[in-house]
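Model: You mentioned two targets. I'll fold them one after the other.
Researcher: Yes, keep them separate.
Model: Target one:
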Amino acid sequence: MSRVLVTGSAGRLGRSVVATLAAAGHEVIGVDSAPGTPAEAAAVLPADLTDTGEAFEVVARFRPQSVIHLAAIATPFSRPESVIFKVNTQLAFNVCEAAVTLGVRNVVIASSPTVIGYGAPRGWAPAYLPIDEEHPVRPWNAYNLSKVAAEQTMKTFAEAGTTHFAAIRPCFVIAPEEWAGAPTQSGHTLTERLDRPELGGVSLFNYVDARDAAEFTGVLIEALPELPNGEVFFVGAADALAREPLAELLPQVVPGTEPYAAGLTGSSPAFSTTKAERLLGWQAKRSWRTELKEDSE
């Protein structure tokens, strides 16, 4: 098919992206300073992409047709705020610049739903529900500010050459082993997250199976040349990570959502993937209702 370079290939989402794209016939090159890139990768390079020279060297060495940029400090407040912002923004800039300069055809940049601003200490309420890509962004910490900057960096470079760009906002990523009881990125199990609504409520009960998000990236890189340059997509499950309807649950855990939550009927999620369905024909296949092994509590 084509050669795809995946940064952050050992991460929670990166592992599934590598395996999924390799299974689809792509030659996948992993780039990650940490171990854990799946064996399906044709090659793995432990490069520091915050170094401009290393970023250019990686792209020049492998000459990929597509780059999927997932590498980042992925957890808010896990490092000093200045470090999170510096690392994540430098990564995005270096990858975009190297890709445009060296003629990469397609680039996908990972952003985050957190750019919407939920969880802000001074309070937050949505402009409307479900939230789509047109919803205003309200970053309040270094992590989500860095993701807003990554999106804008992507859009800036989209104007600078012939490279096709898009950004994705994957919801709370669930790796395959987490369905069987392994801790999620928040440190809790999925069963705990379901049983204690205050854990998932701060992020509006969003989630996506890593394999679904990986399949989305495969669809996206194939479609990018036909899309307007610089599009942004939410990537999420078709339901909420909650045992009760969000119309009832969300106002209990996120004050201020009362006027909007009533429209979220049944198991509907707070984030809309209508744009991905409309432009790409993509919809998540997996749900916690079918994937979770509850007897692993």
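Model: Target two:
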Amino acid sequence: MPVAVVTDSTAYFPPELSGTYDLTVVPLTVVINGDEGLEGQEISPAEVARALGGRRFAVSTSRPAPGQFVAAYHKLLDSGADGVVSVHLSSRLSGTYDAAVLAAGEVGPQVQVVDSGTTGMGLGFAALAAASTARAGGTLEQVRRSAADNAAQVSTLFYVDTLEHLRRGGRIGAASALLGTALSVKPILHVVDGSIVVRDKVRTAGRALARLVDLAVEAAGTGDVDIAVHHLGSADRARSLADAVSMRLGDRLRDCYITEIGAVVAAHVGPGVAGVVVHRRG
């Protein structure tokens, strides 16, 4: 068998790719008022959005236990896989990568873990590239390198109505949160070295989305790219955003996906999020 590829539930693949790639997805957990549920299986992003809108609701997330990864790795290896490449969201945003590393240490060197340094389809593009290399018969090292190289070629940009949810969850510093909300500006953020930082500030939501288009085109550079537009319960706005970026990129755009973020990221960014992930093709 080829090398198997594992990722986590924050990759947020678009529905049209379901079943297209051979990937094992390990879910993170969402906790709403003490009730736990697995992302993508037991708790939906809509439930998280409703909870965040209620004053007496507490929402948090937790990484998979190392044992979940151990079970997934053993299942794949026992089924005949030559090795496993496990690709996960930024270690600065979650303990998921650390849990995978602990599990890999227990299973053995035939499991290699990659920190994508991002999440959403930034992680998704890296996992898809790894799966494509595995399907083509790549070695364990080639699949690992494919994941790492493609993760390095993504830019993740997003707009949020407020930084309060990111601040509460510890995903952005208090100083940045204060800066991002000063004078009622609308913050545009990006992921740098695995961390979320403020990229720009504009006065209105409309200007924020227009600026998001400009930044996505800038991140695309001069070569061929894929993009993924993320949203939370705002499919129409996501389509408008995708159309605007597509028009600017022209024939350099290869694949364009629109996909809703899942419950885990929704818990940290809140309603109103809109994001663009740019994947530069090598």
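Researcher: Noted. Anything on target two?
Model: The radius of gyration is 18 Å.
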